[in-house]
Amino acid sequence: MDCVICKHGTTESGLVTVSLSRGNTVIVVKEVPAEVCANCGEYYLSEEVSKKLLSKANAAVASGAEVEILRYAA
Ligand SMILES: [Zn+2]
Questions:
Q1: I need a surface site. Which of 5, 11, 18, 60 has the fewest CB within 10 A?
Q2: Residue 36 CA to ligand 1 centre (angstroms)
Q3: What is the CATH number of the domain that holds 56?
Q4: How many A from CA of 33 to the centre of ligand 1?
Q5: From the CA of 24, how far away is ligand 1's center (Å)?
Q6: Is residue 6 domain-resident?
Q7: pTM more than 0.90
Q8: Does the pLDDT value for residue 50 go beyond 70?
Q9: What does the alpha-carbon distance between residue 13 and residue 25 come to, in Å, rounded to a whole number?
Q10: Whole-number pLDDT of residue 40
Q11: pLDDT tens across 3-39, in order?
């Protein structure tokens, strides 16, 4: 697909590190499958991946962690 941020690049499948913050909790998820713009590096997550990230984030918040570093596949 074409990148909507820079409008020049096209995206390729790759792995990215995503960080999320919820209240006092920061969640970093490594090796997340995404479409990555070859030009500007912007990444796009599928709906399925986004949902999984949110459920991991919610679990980290529920556990009371301030910083949680996870691997997507774990
Ligand atoms: Zn781009």
A1: 5
A2: 8
A3: 3.10.20.860
A4: 17
A5: 31
A6: no
A7: no
A8: yes
A9: 29
A10: 96
A11: 999 999 999 999 999 999 988 999 999 999 999 999 9
- Inside any domain, residue 57: yes
Residue 34's contacts (CB-CB under 8 Å, 6 or more residues apart) are 13, 14, 15, 16, 18, 43, 44, 45, 46, 49
Q: 74 pLDDT exceeds 70?
A: no
Q: How far is the CA of 4 from the centre of ligand 1 (A)?
A: 7
The candidate with the shortest Cα–Cα distance to 65, out of 30, 31, 32, 28, is 28
Q: How many angstroms is it from 43 CA to the middle of ligand 1?
A: 8
Ligand 1 centroid to 71 CA: how many Å?
A: 25
**Domain assignment of residue 50, given as a range:** 11-71
Is position 35 within any domain?
Answer: yes
Cα of 59 vs centre of ligand 1, distance in Å, is: 31
pLDDT at 1: 85
Our count of domains for the chain comes to: 1
* pLDDT value at residue 15: 96
